[in-house]
Amino acid sequence: MSSFFTFLTLLVMGLVALVLVRGLVNMARGGSGNTSNKLMQLRVLLQAIAIVLIMLTLWITGGGR
């Protein structure tokens, strides 16, 4: 079960990086401010999910004890 949460955590962290890069590319190209705002909101949401999954994984595995 812990390997599932580890995989899910890594997946969400990868999505955070992907959304961050998309936002930076949008900003560099002078894209829409609305798109940048939506990407920032999505990144913050994904980061919150990643933190919850990291804490859940640590709780399930005993925190490395």
What's the layout of helices and strands?
Layout: H1 2-28, H2 33-61
Helix pairs in contact: 1-2
Features:
2 helices; mainly alpha; single chain; 65 residues
Short characterization:
By secondary structure, the chain is mainly alpha-helical. It has helices at residues 2-28, 33-61. The mean pLDDT is 89.
Radius of gyration: 15 Å
Spell out the helices and strands N to C. Answer: HH
Number of helices: 2
Structural class: mainly alpha
Compute the average pLDDT.
89
Give the strand tally.
Answer: 0
Uncertain regions spanning at least 5 consecutive residues = none
- Helical residue percent band: over 70%
End-to-end distance, in Å? 17 Å
Describe the sheet with the most strands.
none
Into which percentage range does the β-strand content fall? Answer: under 5%
Identify the overall geometry.
elongated
Polypeptide structure, described:
The protein is mostly helical. 86% of the residues lie in helices and 0% in strands. The chain has two helices and no strands. Helix 1 (2-28) runs antiparallel to helix 2. The longest helix has 29 residues, at 33-61. The radius of gyration is 15 Å and the shape is elongated. The protein starts with a helix and ends with a helix.
